Amino acid sequence: MSNVGFRIKTHIDRPDKKLVKLFSGMPVANIDDCMNRTACLDSGLRPYNKSKLLGCALTVRCTSGDNLMMHKALDMAQPGDIIIVSSEGAQLRATCGEIMVRYAMSRGIAGFIIDGCIRDADEIAEIDFPVYARGAIPNGPYKNGPGEIGFPIAIGGVVINPGDILVGDGDGIAVINPADAEELAAETKKVTAKETKIMADVTAGKGMDRAWVDKALEEKSCVFVD
């Protein structure tokens, strides 16, 4: 019996850690640009501190207002895993708080992404552990289930598979299929180098190429009215 909706997959295929580290320090916006601007979770998932997010997805599905399966994921997670929780965007109860964050840190877990709320937001803001969520509320969760661990979930307009590479900064979170990672990292590195040069030229007063603006307007038949 598969028991869909209340099950745990005990084996997760994780990418090589060297592959994950290729994205260390890379701006999420540049990664997304190299993925045709389609790879990021929606803007409702925001960071609760300034810690950078980088690791691979351990996917969790919880019912609204419940965190039983997230607790089990805390014990299953390996160092470098990011626990990403689909909790139906729950706004009435928190899925986790400071104690769970500190326990995750002690086990080498690389971050939390909660499609719902957290609590202890002030304390989490001071901890060097990346946490993303849709909001904060004092109400605590139940621990009844059901839920799933290690199966695909959908959050913020993107499907996340176990083992996907997750990169987050102040702009948001990018989701990367490990099969695309090496080529994507190389392309993102080029974009970052190009942008670094543009910013250096602007800072030095050399300006930047703006000819493309009028060219685009002309191609789209924009009319100028005096």
Write the layout of secondary structure elements.
Blueprint: E1 6-8, H1 17-21, H2 28-33, E2 46-47, E3 53-62, H3 68-76, E4 81-86, E5 94-96, H4 98-106, E6 111-118, H5 121-124, E7 131-136, E8 147-149, E9 153-155, E10 158-160, E11 165-169, E12 172-176, H6 178-203, H7 211-219
Structural features, described:
The protein is an alpha/beta fold and 226 residues long. Helix content is 30%, strand content 25%. The chain has 7 helices and 12 strands. Strands 1, 2, 3, 4, 5, 6, 7, 8, 11 and 12 form a 10-stranded mixed beta sheet that branches. Strand 11 and strand 12 (172-176) form a beta hairpin. It is elongated, with a radius of gyration of 20 Å.
Order of secondary-structure elements: EHHEEHEEHEHEEEEEEHH
Q: What is the distance, rounded to the nearest whole angstrom, between the alpha carbons of the first and last residues?
A: 73 Å
| Classification by helices and strands | alpha/beta
Radius of gyration: 20 Å
* Number of beta strands: 12
Major sheet: 10 strands, mixed
- What is the overall number of helices? 7
| Helicity level | 25-40%
Indicate the mean pLDDT: 96
The share of residues in extended strands comes to 25-35%
Please state the overall shape, judged from the principal axes of the Cα atoms: elongated
Can you tell me the residue ranges where pLDDT is under 50 for at least 5 consecutive residues? none
Write a concise keyword list for the protein shown above:
226 residues, alpha/beta, ten-stranded mixed β-sheet, two-stranded antiparallel sheet, 7 helices, 25% strand
